[in-house]
Write a structure and sequence with these properties.
single chain; mainly alpha; two-stranded antiparallel sheet; 21 helices
Length: 514
């Protein structure tokens, strides 16, 4: 926004904003012309050496995923629209489009300028960027992975659906931040119901070919209704809450830029509340390990519910993918299910952080650890095991004919994948500061690849799960794959203990002292 647009708010406000803008423009880390030119140079190199060959290869080869008829594609696009809308709302609850730098927000709040003037301008600009980026990303992904753009009629319908989806996602992102939880649940339910209705209509009338056109119209109409309402709600934003969110976002951004993304994510963990007295029995003693973990999980009900849902869905998808390995999307479903179990194992309880603190901080009364691993890992292991049994059992019962002939091998592979996901979660939760040796250059013919090591360290849990699943899928024997998964999990546990400084000769005796 410019200073001229703020002149109507009063000369004092305009002078303040002008002074802050001049001071902000002269800061030491401001981008220069040479810096912007170098960024464009890197983008051009990436496009010339990576993007252009990929596009050329796609144009001269068949698509990896065949869409088939548009009637069959409509339900999948509806599911994608629901997932994108819900994801945008969740993202807005944590980091929305009106989150600004704390200092600038403080300056704006100290003036007489109404919040709609400056927050509205910032939100519109960011929504435009997000919508354009989403549209380009969706079209590029559809072109590279599917044959949707191989024919003119399907390309036009796909483009129309992409425009509606990008607009709805942008406004849902804003809606998730400026509206309360009840309104977000209402919009999420409406979007889910509308998508189910469109998918049903496309199934009932398969010859009409109006599935994607109807979906594009519904998305555009929803965005047209949701957008103005979300922009009007900016004026009612709680500025004190926005200041706290902006401060937290600034701190998280600092953590992310300094290579400690896990610390940034820890800032967005929900604060436990309630049930503190339930940890103690009436006679004054602490409850058992399993009861303590369950109570601590109930102190963050939203996170625990999401973790339980991920465990159930992930184990069901994992079981289905393992049973269909080597056939179509079986390996992809296997990897997706393992990732869901990995995420759910961390969200289902808060004892992981306690374990990291106990291993990294000195004990208050000497080395009386009292079985640290047993006390902190009982609840996550039991919760993940129960979730895997329930989700996997449900998947087997639903498609018994698909699983009946290979229950033994499927059970071994699912158990190995779950154990490996737990090991990857332990490795991730024991992460501390970024090791300095990762910043050393790795000179190759392709340039310095030290950044890849940093990225792999940041997302080590995902890397372990994906590489472990790929290795297990490459082995012909289910028993051998399960042994490999157990070895990978053991390596993750050992590496995690080394990160906390406990990987030495007296480790097990010290952990077991009571």
């Amino acid at each position: 926004m410019t200073v001229d647009t703020l002149a109507a708010a009063g000369p004092d406000s305009a002078d303040r904003v002008r002074a802050v803008r001049q001071r902000h423009a002269r800061r030491g880390d401001r981008g220069t012309v040479r810096g912007h030119a170098y960024t464009l140079y890197l983008v051009a190199l990436f496009a010339a050496f990576y993007l252009v060959p990929v596009v050329h290869a796609r144009s001269t080869s068949p698509a990896s995923v065949s869409v088939g008829s548009l009637t069959e594609a409509a339900p999948w696009v509806c599911a994608l629209a629901v997932a994108v809308c819900w994801g945008a709302q969740v993202a807005g609850r944590f980091w929305g489009p009106v989150v600004v730098q704390p200092f600038l927000l403080h300056v704006f709040m100290s003036t007489d300028i109404p919040p709609t003037r400056y927050l509205g301008t910032i939100a519109r600009r960011r929504l435009t960027y997000v919508g354009a980026t989403g549209l380009l990303s969706a079209c590029a992904a559809a072109y590279l992975a599917t044959d949707l753009f191989d024919h003119l009629d399907s390309a036009v319908q796909g483009l129309a659906s992409g425009v509606g989806l990008s607009a709805l996602a942008a406004f849902a992102w804003l809606w998730g931040q400026v509206r309360p939880l009840r309104d977000n649940l209402l919009v999420a339910s409406a979007v889910g119901g509308g998508a189910a209705l469109v998918a049903g209509v496309s199934r009932v009338a398969p010859d009409s070919g109006v599935g994607l056109w109807l979906l594009a119209g519904v998305l555009a109409a929803t965005a047209a209704v949701l957008g103005p309402a979300a922009l009007r709600a900016i004026g009612a934003v709680d500025l004190a809450r926005l200041a706290r969110e902006s401060a937290r976002a600034s701190q998280a951004q600092t953590y992310a830029w300094t290579g400690t993304l896990h610390h940034a994510l820890d800032l967005y963990r929900p604060e436990p509340s309630g049930l503190t007295s339930a940890l103690i029995r009436p006679d004054g003693r602490l409850r058992g390990y399993l009861a303590q973990g369950a109570i601590r999980a109930l102190r963050t009900p939203g996170r625990a519910s999401a973790g339980a849902a991920l465990l159930l869905i992930g184990s069901a998808v994992l079981t289905h993918g393992v049973a269909g390995r080597g056939q179509g999307p079986g390996s992809w479903l296997w990897a997706l299910g393992a990732l869901c179990v990995y995420l759910g194992s961390g969200w289902v309880g808060e004892t992981w952080r306690g374990l990291r603190d106990e291993l990294t901080l000195a004990p208050l009364f000497g080395e009386r650890w009292g079985g640290t691993l047993a006390r902190t890992l009982t609840w996550p292991v039991v919760a993940v095991t129960v979730g895997a049994l329930l989700g996997g059992g449900l998947a087997v019962l639903v498609r018994w004919d698909h699983h009946s002939g290979q229950l033994g091998g499927t059970a071994l592979l699912v158990a190995g994948s779950v154990v490996m996901a737990l090991g990857a979660r332990f490795l991730r939760e024991m992460k501390l500061d970024l090791p300095l040796e990762l910043l050393l250059p790795v000179i190759t013919p392709f340039g310095d690849l030290s950044g890849l090591r940093v990225i792999a360290w940041q997302f080590d849990g995902f890397v372990v799960v994906l590489m472990g699943v790929a290795l297990m899928a490459a082995l012909p024997s289910a028993a051998g794959a399960a042994v490999v998964a157990v070895c990978v999990a053991a390596g993750c546990v050992w590496t995690g203990l080394r990160r906390t400084g406990w990987a030495h000769r007296g480790l097990f005796s010290r952990l077991g002292r009571g």
